[in-house]
Amino acid sequence: MDYAQLLHAHDLKATTARISLLEALDTEPHLDAETLEQRLIAADIMLTSQAVYNALNELTEQGILRRFTIPATSARYEIDPKDNHHHAVCTRCGRIENVPCAHGAAPCFHPGGATSFSISIADVLFYGQCKDQCASESAADIVF
Ligand SMILES: [Zn+2]
Ligand SMILES: [Zn+2]
Ligand SMILES: [Zn+2]
User: Fold this and answer.
1) Is residue 69 located within the same domain as residue 88?
2) Of the residues 74, 99, 130, the one at which a domain ends
């Protein structure tokens, strides 16, 4: 992915903060701001927490990043593929994976009865156990 070109297409300068955040999320999606900051430090990219937060907010406002939240945890980020995909969270190890949206666009569900709202988004989050690691083990849920 050409991050500089992506940024220029959104009238954003290709700063170190923006480029390095996009690189980190391309490699490992669904990270929160604190973890991203740690990844940058590990790569010898020294930015203040404020610079990381600012860049994440700008990239999200421009629609380059998508922010989503799993209840009781901090906001997470990913490069937005614009496919309205949902997330599955493993209730044992906390692993997060993309789950395709059956409908493909928001809102993918509608209320089962009459409503006085014009619905724009149905926020869907799947919980379960990851098949790779946790579903085969017999211990109880530990994360949530
Ligand atoms: Zn798991
Ligand atoms: Zn995702
Ligand atoms: Zn959906």
Assistant:
1) no
2) 74
